[in-house]
Amino acid sequence: MLGLSYLTLALALATSPINASPVEPKTVCKCLPGQPCFPSLSVISAFESTLTQPLMHPRPMGSVCFPNDPTFNALKCDAVKSKWHNGAFRTSVPEAAQFINWETMINSTAVDQCDPFGDVNDPSNTCFQGRVPWGVVNVTSIADIQKTVKFASQYNLKLIVKNTGHENLGRSFGQKSIMLWTHNMQGIKFSNSFVPKGAPSGTQGVTAVTIEPGVQWGTLYKAVADRGQLVVGGIGAGGSVGAGGGWPMGGGHSVLSPFYGLGVDNIVEETVVLPNGEHVTANLYTNPDLFWALRGGGGPSFGILTSVTYRTHPAPPVTAAFLVVNTTTEAGRLELFKEWVKIHPTLVDAGWAGFWPYSGTQFFLTLMAMGNPPTNPKATSTLQGFYNKIATIPGVSIDLDVTKPYTGFQQWYDDNFIHSQNGIGFNYTIGDFSGVPAAVSSVLIPRTSFETNTDDLATALAELTDARPFLVGGGVVSKVDPDAMAVNPAFRSMLSDITIALSWNVTTATPQEVLAVEQTVTQWANGIRDVTKSPGAYVNEAEILIPNFQEAYWGSHYPRLRAFKQTIDPKDLLIVRQGVNSEGWDDEIMCKTL
User: Fold this and answer.
1) Which residue ranges form the domains of the chain, and what is each CATH number?
2) How far apart are CA 178 and CA 138, in angstroms?
3) Alpha helical stretches, state H, 418-453
4) Distant-in-sequence, close-in-space partners of 83: CB < 8 Å, separation ≥ 6
5) Does Endoplasmic reticulum count among this protein's keywords (predicted)?
6) pLDDT in tens, 324-345
7) Whole-structure pTM value
8) Looking at the DSSP assignment, which residues form a beta bridge with residue 471?
9) What is the pLDDT of residues 464-521, one digit of tens each?
């Protein structure tokens, strides 16, 4: 059975007498398949006839492996298993998320999933539909989005949006939902002099690229590089992170951010379908309040993206530095972190950005500086000074130290994130996993913590056995007005974003064991937050049990965001878990207690 506790809740529409005392809470719910309020087959058929593609009703990807499932097919099962951990494949089908716990219904008593690697021949094992949507609109036009939005609004349906499924809180999936799948909107258009709609006469145009929502960063990076330019974007193995969905709507940090700003700092214009079905343009001159909210307010809370226009930049050569350090004692490991924390602000000011993952006894650096040699005259000496210092620490050994010039960002990206056989140091194509369950957290560490709380921060970092931090702050990021857009103002004072991710055995884990992993992630993140005294987090690296998501993701911007959300989405059509104005809604966005 499918998540019975949620379904029962969805059916229970509570009411209160007007003059009752005390007033009982009222519950309002989305209309779900199988309920009397749900549109009839004839109504659904009439809606489907207006779309460019037939409505899809997917089963979970693993269903073909279950002999007791109508979709069973042994050959297809082998194909599914071979692609199970392929992130690029998972972006190309609507029924797959990057992290499979978001395809699963997990409550206090059951983990309802569709695991093809379990004992599928046991007749008692079932492929549960879980959070895989009831229906999918394969979007190929803006009209498809508008018609679906109006249909979902008319019948109070649970509407979700997916472009690639790179989502750490399952917001692009949902039990008994209808999905707008934008993956197949792949348009890319360049301009040498883009002027935003409504700009004053004489406004100087900028070099820019306009994309539709299905375009992924790997594709876009290459298209831009072929024109001798670069664009600030997300980094992920295989290039499958979407460039036109949650990444820009959540803020979008990048290894290029210290040099050119966050993703949202580079957005010139966006077009969206609003919750009322209207298709509008947003920029600094047209719908500026909407433009403010779209740049960091989280997707798809304020509208469903149909295009985003990014500023592009000249593509200089770059210098990359790779380091692999091994520690043999806890004391040596702690001293290594103390030196890393101390050098952090100076390293940023010297023009370096990048990643510093660590796991067990190993510590890695994958850093980048603009220019070959680096344009910042202090870059080389600053980094070498750090190397020299840690080489003297007992119990610390430098196993790899490579500095390599690249023709530009694109060559560096291709070698280390697309063709890993050419990579150096940490293998990101292995480190970035898909097709597994995961609980994730994010903490934005401010510059002041590196400068004034060095030993405590180093101790907190060393207490984590595994983490994936990103040195993506400072530089241009810190020079933008924190209130210029909705993105978390904590980004403007941070230097590194540390992410923590833990997984579990999908075949055997109980609900209590899953909860224990989620609690551990938050406990570890709290250890960093306690030291930094900063609740700031990245909404695109959402944490399941985060304390006070409103403050964590948006800080002082939240009241303005919520008021605007209530104005443009009074029917709560585009509500997501831990999203703006989601207060009162259950985690599955099925019912709201007023």
Assistant:
1) 29-181 (3.30.43.10), 318-549 (3.40.462.20)
2) 11
3) 428-431, 447-452
4) 89, 90
5) no
6) 999 999 999 999 999 999 999 9
7) 0.94
8) 354, 496
9) 999 999 999 999 999 999 999 999 999 999 999 999 999 999 989 999 999 999 999 9
